[in-house]
């Protein structure tokens, strides 16, 4: 395959060569015309006869040979056709020089006719050349360049020939001698064309074969076929009208110029005046082609055609109001040329895109035939107006203007949707920054488009951004009855109703078989949660009936804008970005023979992840984004620290303190990673923000881990400096503090209040971009490391998880898209910062989104937690079931009345805890899911949409037992634990995730990276399943399953059943843990660790009565004093294995 650079070089070489050939051919023809109009060359009556037959002479080759020349262009490469055209042109130039030397009128007219044949020969090769060399995404731009080059060649050639001819005449030569001199100079231009031609590549050979039989005698049948094709008719008629009107206008102007020169002898020649007027029209045409090409950069913009026709009408009327030598006559011609560029370029692009390969020869020939008919018709129109009716110039121009008005109106009548779409595209570019990627995946013919549906303007967005027209299948309910048919036609809607559904399906099928694109929203209704809902199966039948591929399309970044139900508001809401950037991602087509709802859903999820990865905000720097957010409202209280005495901290103060400390870190800490041992609060927030602003990586260490684990983390992360506080060091005497331990309070006091106040003043006075430059905060972060966390080590040794700026910003954006944590909320932050949820959500998300945050140093103090919720009017509380249960036990209903919901993660949410919260407090616990490696949130249940629009069926935001749907920009697969095969919905396997929030790999651990990261997918090690609506159910970690006698036995299921049978639901701490230990006979056997007085016999009796299989019943019970728990609230499985007598997993 040729490289893009090589393809571009070939295109440029062919365009330059084609332009020079056209330049020379038009110069030769204009030279003959100038000679004919020169005084003394022809008899007085012969000039009128020459002008009368001129259109016929120029159009005759198109009428006679168009099919043959179109076949040549289709059969032979553009390089070969150009080679032949250059040789023919050289021969004709030699013949022209000979005719002029012999002063032979007959031979000169014959050469002129052959030059017209040469133009007809070259014409079809222009479009074939672009199809052959130009890349598909550059085709419209290539057409613009071709049209501009053609105009420049026509004008340049004509003007150069007339200028050189008149220069020779001024030197004393006669008309024949002057023309001969110019003709002898023209081969020099052809020689330049040959040099420009050399870089053009040699295209692959095309299949041999003779021309179709009776090719020349079936021209009219081909023209009838062209006009009978609904997809090509409008462009063919439009091009015919252009050549009819344009040729007639040229004849009218030449005739008027001839009379004007006769009345003003000695001023300028007729040819000189004609070329001068043509120059103004051509400059306008160049500008018109440029504008048409820019507007139609990625699509066929037929909506420009009525504007072009109306512009030509206005220009002709304007010219009719002025004399030929009036100053206003020239800008009128420029407007005429500009409008013709707007008119013609889209028609040629439209025709090229819609003619099929097998019909190209016939259709291109028929199109050139219609062009010839337009030229002949122009001669008839001119003769009728000038000779028969003897209209003056003004009346002739008014008649042509009236014809252009009619064409503009007919164009709007035939294709009103194109004009409407053009207007909508203009409006869309004001309200949105629309982009489309993957257009190359669209098939050339018909296809069924399936898209996600998150707003009431999805159809409009797709119609505006797609390069081809879309037809939409839409339910024609009661609220839409009575709309006229033209409304559906203009908007591209195929209405469906229960009574006439078959008609709509038949029409959609016919459209796709005719090569059109039909779009459906397989979710069936607008999503009120922003998540992808169940994919209905109706599209499968539609694709199979039409036998066309299914093309998945995903609209990204539109959720949260107007006309979406984010924040339960459709229109009246605050939008963070204006104009809003929206990306439409087009995926590879799915074969209709095998496509189904499962594959379509997976394709849409994958496209959503690809589109999310393209968001520009993911390239930014975490510190820069926090600076922007805090500096936007420096007076706002963003943090309430309840560590000791209640202390409010404003955004400006927080930013000023962090910026001051960042200077100290940048100056005194050479290492890239800086350890932090601080609880949630002002100190922990300032320390983390300062480290990031200094361009370093914060490493929040788990101070609840063992000294050995902490030392391992320090060694692995190459952390030499740790930021802490004196009070924290006093409470953690066993912590292996490094020698370079800094005291945050002491460092800030050493900086002095003036330094902080000075930066606070800057925060109030300067824009954030200037602050970032002043404080040396980079705007770009991307894949650079922004944080280092260590996994909880619940099942083994902690692993280092580096998180990039892209990971953290991506996850914060995903959480923001759910609307679950808006700026109006007050968030309780008590999870430790070394916990991934505490690090990303209660620290960085709160800073980035300006959420008011109340901090507590520990989640274990239920009393202080309840007091904080009541006194600070907390609306959102985030924790684990281990932390949530004591809070709910201690609190009274009126103390938690400010809470809208609680989010539970890290552990499976017990059903009894959910029901207890709902019954006692009317409070819904929303379970989420995430891992340190996913920064961490991937799924979350959402509150039910409270205000559903009329006609929209009830939608679920949450489902009990699940962890919710995937966040925006996430995609997932469930694979078989042993074979790795992708499993369908409702089957359990290993959860694999991909998204912008997924980390890039464990720190210095290539072995684990090879196991956990495969082809861009993160293998979580958790077992789960998706239901048909996209809710994920986590069954447990693979490590929490035992293979007993060849059967997979889930530990969590057995634990839950024991808790239920022995009445342990109300316990605030975990009482039982089931583990698997090696067994020589069965591979593994089950052991129960418990703090309760449970015997083996009692356990067997109750579990057997509950219906559990014998393999699921633990054979050993070990009594312990306390179930080991990590600082994050999770069960310490490593410690439990040690108590069970099994070696800890690595």
The global form is: elongated
Number of H- or I-type helical stretches = 37
Strand order of the largest sheet: 9-8-17-16-18-19-20-21-22
Q: What is the tally of beta strands?
A: 32
How many structural domains in the coordinates?
4
Biggest beta sheet attributes: 9 strands, mixed
From the alpha carbons, calculate the radius of gyration and give it in angstroms: 39 Å
Distance between the termini: 49 Å
Quote the CATH topology of the largest domain: Growth Hormone, Chain: A
Range of helix content: 40-55%
Highest CATH level, the class of the largest domain: Mainly Alpha
> What is the average of the pLDDT values?
81
Helix/strand/pairing class, anyone? alpha/beta
Describe the fold and architecture.
With 1146 residues, this protein is α/β, with parallel strands linked by helices. It has four domains: 4-202 and 219-414, Growth Hormone, Chain: A (Up-down Bundle), CATH 1.20.1250.20; 419-614, no CATH class; 622-751 and 778-948 and 958-966, ANL, N-terminal domain (Rossmann fold, 3-Layer(aba) Sandwich), CATH 3.40.50.12780; 1045-1140, GMP Synthetase, Chain A, domain 3. It is 51% helix and 14% strand. It has 37 helices and 32 strands. The strands form seven sheets. The chain has a nine-stranded mixed sheet, with helices on both faces. Strands 1-7-6-2-5-3-4 form a seven-stranded mixed sheet, sandwiched between helices. Strands 23, 24, 25, 26 and 27 form a five-stranded antiparallel sheet that branches. The longest helix is centred in the first third of the chain and has 34 residues, at 4-37. The radius of gyration is 39 Å and the shape is elongated. 50% of the residues are buried. Mean pLDDT is 81; it is low at 1-6 and 477-483.
């Amino acid at each position: 395959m040729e490289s893009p650079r090589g393809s571009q070089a070939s295109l440029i070489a062919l365009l330059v060569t084609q332009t020079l050939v056209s330049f020379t051919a038009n110069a030769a023809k204009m030279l003959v015309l100038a000679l004919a109009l020169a005084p003394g060359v022809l008899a007085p009556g012969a000039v009128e006869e020459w002008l009368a037959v001129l259109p016929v002479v120029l159009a005759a080759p198109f009428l006679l040979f168009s099919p043959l020349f179109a076949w040549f262009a289709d059969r032979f490469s553009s390089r070969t056709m150009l080679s032949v055209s250059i040789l023919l042109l050289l021969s004709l130039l030699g013949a022209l020089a000979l005719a002029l030397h012999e002063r032979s009128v007959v031979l000169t007219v014959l050469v002129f006719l052959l030059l017209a044949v040469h133009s007809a020969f070259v014409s079809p090769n222009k479009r074939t050349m672009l199809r052959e060399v130009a890349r598909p995404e550059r085709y419209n731009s290539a057409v613009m360049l071709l049209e501009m080059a053609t105009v420049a060649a026509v004008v340049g050639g004509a003007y150069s020939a007339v200028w050189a001819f008149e220069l020779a005449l001024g030197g004393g030569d006669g008309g024949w001698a002057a023309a001969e001199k110019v003709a002898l100079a023209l081969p020099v231009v052809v020689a330049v064309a040959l040099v420009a031609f050399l870089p053009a590549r040699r295209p692959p050979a095309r299949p041999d074969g003779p021309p179709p039989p009776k090719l020349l005698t079936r021209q009219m049948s081909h023209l009838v076929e062209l006009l009978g094709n609904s997809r090509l008719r409008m462009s063919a008629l439009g091009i015919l009208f252009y050549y009819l009107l344009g040729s007639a206008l040229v004849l009218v102007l030449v005739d008027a110029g001839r009379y004007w020169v006769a009345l003003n002898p000695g001023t300028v020649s007729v040819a000189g005046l004609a070329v001068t007027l043509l120059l103004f029209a051509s400059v306008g045409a160049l500008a018109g082609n440029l504008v048409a090409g820019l507007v139609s950069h990625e699509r066929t913009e037929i909506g420009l055609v009525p504007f072009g026709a109306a512009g030509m009408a206005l220009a002709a009327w304007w010219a009719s109001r002025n004399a030929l030598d009036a100053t206003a006559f020239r800008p009128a011609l420029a407007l005429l040329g500009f409008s013709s560029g707007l008119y013609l370029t889209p028609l040629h692009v439209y025709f090229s895109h819609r003619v099929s390969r097998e019909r190209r020869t016939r259709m291109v020939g028929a199109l050139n035939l219609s062009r010839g008919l337009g030229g002949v018709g122009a001669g008839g129109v001119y003769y009728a107006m000038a000779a028969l009716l003897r209209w003056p110039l003004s009346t002739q121009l008014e008649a042509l203007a009236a014809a252009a008005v009619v064409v503009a109106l007919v164009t709007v009548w035939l294709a009103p949707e194109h004009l409407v779409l053009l207007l909508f595209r203009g409006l869309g570019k004001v309200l949105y920054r629309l982009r489309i990627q993957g257009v190359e995946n669209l098939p050339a013919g018909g296809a069924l488009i399936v898209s996600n549906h998150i707003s009431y303007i999805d159809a409009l967005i797709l119609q505006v951004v797609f390069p081809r027209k879309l037809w939409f299948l839409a339910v024609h309910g009661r609220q839409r009855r009575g709309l006229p048919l033209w409304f559906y036609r203009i908007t591209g809607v195929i209405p469906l109703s229960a009574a006439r559904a078959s008609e709509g399906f038949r029409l959609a099928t016919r459209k796709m078989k005719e090569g059109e694109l039909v779009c459906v929203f397989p979710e069936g209704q607008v999503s009120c949660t922003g998540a992808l809902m169940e994919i209905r199966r109706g599209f499968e039948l539609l694709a199979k009936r039409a036998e066309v591929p299914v093309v998945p399309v995903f609209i990204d970044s539109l959720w949260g804008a107007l006309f979406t139900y984010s924040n339960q508001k459709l229109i009246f809401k605050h939008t963070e970005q204006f104009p809003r950037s929206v990306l439409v991602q087009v995926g590879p087509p799915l074969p209709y023979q095998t496509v189904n709802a499962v594959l379509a859903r997976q394709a849409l999820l994958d496209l959503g992840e690809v589109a999310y990865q393209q968001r520009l905000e993911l390239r930014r720097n975490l510190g820069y984004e926090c600076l922007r957010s805090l500096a936007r409202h420096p007076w706002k209280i963003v943090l309430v620290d309840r560590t000791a005495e209640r202390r409010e901290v404003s955004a400006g103060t927080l930013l000023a303190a962090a910026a001051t400390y960042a200077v100290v870190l940048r100056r005194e800490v050479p290492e890239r990673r800086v350890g932090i041992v601080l609880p949630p609060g002002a100190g922990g927030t300032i320390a983390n923000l300062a480290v990031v602003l200094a361009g370093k990586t914060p490493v929040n260490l788990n101070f609840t881990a063992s000294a050995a684990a902490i030392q391992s983390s320090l060694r692995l992360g190459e952390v030499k400096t740790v930021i802490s506080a004196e009070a924290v060091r006093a409470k953690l005497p066993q912590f292996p503090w490094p020698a370079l331990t800094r005291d945050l309070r002491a460092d800030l006091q050493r900086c002095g209040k003036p330094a902080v106040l000075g930066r606070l003043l800057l925060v109030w006075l300067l824009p954030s971009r200037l602050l970032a430059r002043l404080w040396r905060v980079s705007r770009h972060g991307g894949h650079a490391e922004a944080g280092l966390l260590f996994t909880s080590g619940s099942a083994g040794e902690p692993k280092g998880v580096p998180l990039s700026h892209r990971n953290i910003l991506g996850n914060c954006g995903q959480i923001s898209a759910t609307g679950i944590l808006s700026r109006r909320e007050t968030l309780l932050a008590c999870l430790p910062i070394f916990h991934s949820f505490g690090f990303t959500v209660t620290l960085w998300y709160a800073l980035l989104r300006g959420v008011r945050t109340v901090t507590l140093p520990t989640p274990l103090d239920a009393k202080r937690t309840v007091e904080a919720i009541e006194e600070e009017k907390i609306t959102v509380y985030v924790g684990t079931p281990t932390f949530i249960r004591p809070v709910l036990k201690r609190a009274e209903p009126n103390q938690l009345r400010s809470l809208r919901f609680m989010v539970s993660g890290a552990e499976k949410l017990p059903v009894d805890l959910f029901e207890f919260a709902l019954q006692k407090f009317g409070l819904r616990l929303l379970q989420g899911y995430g891992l340190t490696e996913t920064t961490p949130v991937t799924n979350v249940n959402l509150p039910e949409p409270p205000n559903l629009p009329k006609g929209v069926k009830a939608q679920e935001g949450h489902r009990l037992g699940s962890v919710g749907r995937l966040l925006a920009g996430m995609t997932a697969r469930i694979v078989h634990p042993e074979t790795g095969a992708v499993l369908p919905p409702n089957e359990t396997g290993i959860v694999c995730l991909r998204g912008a929030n997924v980390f890039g790999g464990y720190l210095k651990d290539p072995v684990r990276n090879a196991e956990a990261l495969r082809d861009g997918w993160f293998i979580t090690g958790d077992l789960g399943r998706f239901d048909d609506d996209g809710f994920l159910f986590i069954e447990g970690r693979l490590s929490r399953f035992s293979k007993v006698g060849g059967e997979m036995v889930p530990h969590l299921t057995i634990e839950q059943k024991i808790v239920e049978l022995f009445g342990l639901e109300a316990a605030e701490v975990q009482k039982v843990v089931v583990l698997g230990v090696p067994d020589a006979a069965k591979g593994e056997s089950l052991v129960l660790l418990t703090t309760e007085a449970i015997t083996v016999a009692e356990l067997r009796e109750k579990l057997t009565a509950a219906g559990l299989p014998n393999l699921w019943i633990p054979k050993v019970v070990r009594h312990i004093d306390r179930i080991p728990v990590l600082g994050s609230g999770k069960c310490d499985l490593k410690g439990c294995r040690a108590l069970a007598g099994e070696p800890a997993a690595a």
